[in-house]
Automatic annotation (TrEMBL), chain A:
Keywords of the record: Signal
Signal peptide region: 1-20
Protein name from the UniProt record: ABC transporter substrate-binding protein
UniProt keyword annotation of Signal present: yes
Membrane spanning residue stretches: none
Pfam family, one: Peripla_BP_6
Domain Leucine-binding protein stretches: 51-403
Species annotation: Planobispora longispora
Top-level taxonomic group: Bacteria
From TrEMBL, chain B:
Keywords for the protein's UniProt record, in alphabetical order: Cell membrane, Membrane, Transmembrane, Transmembrane helix
Major subcellular site: membrane
Protein's recorded name: Branched-chain amino acid ABC transporter permease
Keyword Cell membrane in record: yes
Coiled-coil region list: none
Any one GO cellular component localisation term in the record: plasma membrane
Transmembrane stretches, start-end: 59-77, 83-102, 109-127, 133-154, 161-179, 210-230, 261-282, 336-360
Residue span of region Disordered: 1-42
Membrane topology: Multi-pass membrane protein
Annotated Basic and acidic residues bias: 20-29
Length: 425, 371
């Protein structure tokens, strides 16, 4: 008798049915724990009276690996809090970082690893819209908080089916509203040309801008998009220049931000007011263009720039520089991604201090009921506020204008909630 | 059973599995060798009986054992591990297709990830637009990939070596911007989020276990299909093309026909794998299918072992587990460790992990015989 492939398959199928009939998975040893006392039945996985375990997923390798600096700032903050403050409310923070290489399937794998194997209390930051989209169903099924995700897409706040996921940074729509508000006040009949990246980031911001100027005298007279894979955006810039617009809204990522600024500077015949979005407003983007070429460019910010001399004596900034040197000596504290990590980690600290129950449910509710929480690393006047119908912690930004060799903040902090009402889908 | 021994168990089983392993050198002869006369009467002692089992049958026993282990695993492992092994099988099916093309037909493809993406997106669009049942998407995804493979197989008829590699690389490169363009259908750069197949109530399985068994079924089907394909005259023709095109043509093998078909079949397996991928991940976006995916796949199959049946499985294990292992070693530079590991494997086992397993088996046999 020769075992045929079909025979093998039949044997296997029988085996399969037999094992399946024996019942499902033995649930023993999954390590899930629940609370007693005042918060009965709530999940306490990953948190004890002396420790709290968090997991983050970042692209440490691959095309977006520049963002891999963010966890260094977070680590520095948690190391400092653990060593000098006794942790958050007496709980030492353990922060596990995993690499997804900006690949959604890898992000799913790492999220499962963190939740099921590392038994983390919460996913503290997943980076990038694709990776976060790929993991948020899972996080919500497992009822694991996915806190302060590092992407500005507006869906983290407008969506109602995923209460366990929440963003942190101002979403792109809010940022667009800030620019729209500025134009309404300063140039009420502006003709705007828009350059945007053809992806979720570019479309979210551009769409938000279109809605925000709707019904005003501001007209969008030209729009050009580009792909991340394009070598240059000069053709797009030439087309925009032909429109004769008097405002250029530059919605790009750093590499293309530099190119657009340079292209605008080269074209002496067209001198629009150049607004560059926050993503491309770092000094490292402006420097290659030449500071003399970017005078008067406008952008918006929400956290303090470590390169800005006006924060030199700011207590939080001094603490940041000192602790970065002490706990992550190999990292350059002047890189804004580190500052971003520090700011988001201290935001988590504040949120965790506010929980009523030290449980996953408690954290979920705490980050959705923040009330004007002040964070040292955010600009004065920018606070975190959320509510039952408001899933966006930060929705205020301040405008800044490039002058000399640095950004100068001007005007009041613009609270887009007040000016435009809550952001809904 | 601890997780680690399970993993090793899977490796060991995979290593001893391949019925096709010895055939790679002399394809035509070995493939035709009929199984030698069956074992004599029953009731003898087990050991000599086992020794008399033909190599071919030993292969099948190993396959059956591997399948039994595969069916047993999801009931023993935590969901996270079950998910990982599901992904191993997804990659294994894709690598099986690549193996057909690279290992058996001797062509090269740097664009295999594109066909994988086509399968994944076909499935996603069908689920998103027409709410087809999940199982119905599998044949359609495979067919679409097959057709595209046939179309892109045409350059393979005229091009060789480096030139063919470049053309296939171009497929992988232009796919991502293409997916972003047709936003109304593909969801653009936001991708599409889809429901995963829900386990029917009668099975009593959890979602991850159900996905595992669905993928296992796809993998078993794919391996049986590839096995049948390579044992037929098609397989012999492909091997002839690989070994010497001129000689193959003289023997009456129609080169353009078989080269194009090899591309189409390889794409079909990739498409089926892509379909299973969409079931398992429930989300597709252009960023999931960048050029590096194609390169990683090629690395996976070369490391797993070209031209053998255990190669795709070992390659799948490699693609799945080695990046995370290298991150555990040093989380500052996972890429460096991954690259170094590839170099090490290529030095130690120039014929891939499958070849290494075969060599180890042979040398232990020799040692045992001498004693």
């Amino acid at each position: 008798m020769r075992l045929s492939p079909i025979g093998c398959a039949a044997v296997t199928a029988t085996l399969l049915l037999a094992t399946a009939a024996c019942g499902g998975r033995e649930e023993a040893g999954t390590g899930a724990t629940t609370a007693a006392g005042q918060c009965p039945g709530q999940q306490t996985t990953g948190i004890t009276d002396t420790s709290i375990k968090l997991g983050g997923i970042y692209p440490l390798s691959g095309p977006a690996s520049a963002y891999g600096d963010i966890p260094k700032g977070i680590k520095a903050y948690f190391d400092y809090v653990n060593a000098e403050k006794g942790g958050i409310g007496g709980r030492k923070v353990e922060f596990v970082v995993r690499d997804d290489g900006y690949q959604p399937p890898k992000a799913v794998e790492e999220a499962r690893r963190l939740v099921e194997q590392e038994q983390v209390f919460a996913l503290f930051q997943t980076l990038g819209t694709p990776s976060t989209t790929a993991t948020w169903d899972y996080a919500n099924q497992r009822k694991v908080p996915q806190i302060f995700v590092a992407t500005g897409a507006s869906k983290w706040g407008t969506d109602t089916a995923h209460p366990w996921t929440i963003g942190w940074q101002p979403n792109y729509v809010s940022e667009a509203r800030v620019y729209a508000q500025y134009l309404k006040q300063e140039r009420p009949d502006a003709k705007v040309a828009v350059l945007y990246q053809n992806d979720d980031f570019g479309k979210d911001l551009f769409g938000g801008f279109q809605r925000a100027v709707d019904g005003s005298q501001i007209k969008i007279v030209a729009e050009q998009s580009y792909e991340v894979t394009d070598p240059s955006i000069d053709p797009q810039m030439r087309n925009l220049a032909e429109s004769g617009a008097d405002v250029l809204l530059n919605i790009t990522t750093p590499k293309f931000g530099s190119q657009a600024l340079a292209s605008d500077a080269r074209n002496g015949a067209w001198n629009p007011l150049h607004i560059v979005n926050n993503v491309s407003s770092s000094i490292t983007v402006l420097k290659p263009v030449g500071f003399e070429n970017v005078q008067g460019v406008v952008s918006a910010a929400y956290y303090k720039d470590p390169n800005d001399p006006q924060w030199k004596d700011d207590p939080e900034m001094k603490l940041y520089f000192e602790k970065m040197k002490q706990y992550v000596p190999e990292a350059d504290p002047a890189v804004p991604y580190h500052t971003f990590g520090w700011a988001v980690a201290s935001s988590f600290h504040k949120a965790m201090e506010a929980v009523k129950c030290p449980t996953r449910e408690g954290l979920r509710d705490a980050v959705r009921s923040l009330n004007n929480v002040e964070i040292g690393m955010l600009l004065p006047g920018v606070t975190m506020t959320t509510g039952a119908d408001d899933g966006f912690p930060i929705e205020s930004m301040q405008l800044m204008r490039f002058k000399g060799e640095r950004w100068e903040l001007f005007g009041e902090v613009i609270d887009t909630r007040k000016e435009f009402g809550p952001l809904t889908n | 059973m601890s997780e680690r021994t399970n993993e090793r168990g899977a490796f060991a089983n995979a290593g001893s599995e391949p019925p096709g392993e010895d055939r790679t050198r002399e394809p035509a002869k070995a493939a035709d060798t009929p199984p030698r006369a069956g074992t004599p009467s029953r009731g003898r002692v087990l050991a000599p009986a086992l020794a008399r089992v033909t190599p071919g049958r030993r292969g099948w026993i190993a396959v059956a054992a591997l399948l039994a282990v595969a069916c047993y695993l999801p009931f023993q492992l935590v969901p996270f591990r079950v998910f990982q092994f599901t992904m191993v099988m997804v990659y294994a099916v894709a690598l099986l297709g690549l193996n057909l093309l690279v290992g058996h037909a001797g062509q090269i493809s740097l664009g295999h990830g594109a066909f994988f993406a086509v399968g994944a997106y076909t499935t996603a669009i069908m689920l998103d637009r027409w709410d087809l049942p999940h199982l119905a998407t599998l044949p359609i995804a495979a067919a679409v990939a097959f057709a595209l493979g046939l179309a892109f197989g045409l350059p393979a008829v005229r091009l060789r070596g480096l030139y063919l590699a470049l053309v296939t690389l171009a497929i992988a490169i232009f796919l991502v911007p293409l997916l972003k363009r047709f936003e109304s259908v593909t969801g653009g750069s936001m991708g599409l989020t889809l429901a995963k197949p829900a386990p029917p109530a009668w099975t009593g399985l959890a979602e991850d276990q159900w996905l595992y068994f669905l993928t296992l079924a796809v993998a078993v089907l794919a391996f049986l299909l590839a096995y049948g394909l390579l044992r037929s005259r098609v397989g012999r023709a492909l091997h002839a093309v690989r070994d010497n095109e001129a000689a193959a043509e003289v023997m009456g093998v129609r080169l353009p026909f078989y080269k194009t078909l090899a591309f189409a079949w390889s794409a079909m397996f990739a498409g089926a794998a892509g379909c299973a991928y969409t079931w398992v991940i429930g989300f597709v976006s252009p960023d999931s299918f960048v050029v590096t995916l194609s390169i990683t796949m090629l690395a996976g199959i070369v490391i797993g072992g070209l031209g053998s049946f255990s190669g795709p499985l070992l390659g799948g294990l490699f693609v799945m587990f080695v990046p995370s292992i290298s991150q555990d070693v040093n989380d500052a530079a996972p890429g460096v460790i991954f690259g170094l590991l590839i170099i090490v494997v290529m030095y130690v086992a120039p014929t891939g992990l499958a070849g290494l397993a075969g060599r180890v088996t042979r040398s232990t046999k020799n040692i045992l015989r001498k004693e």
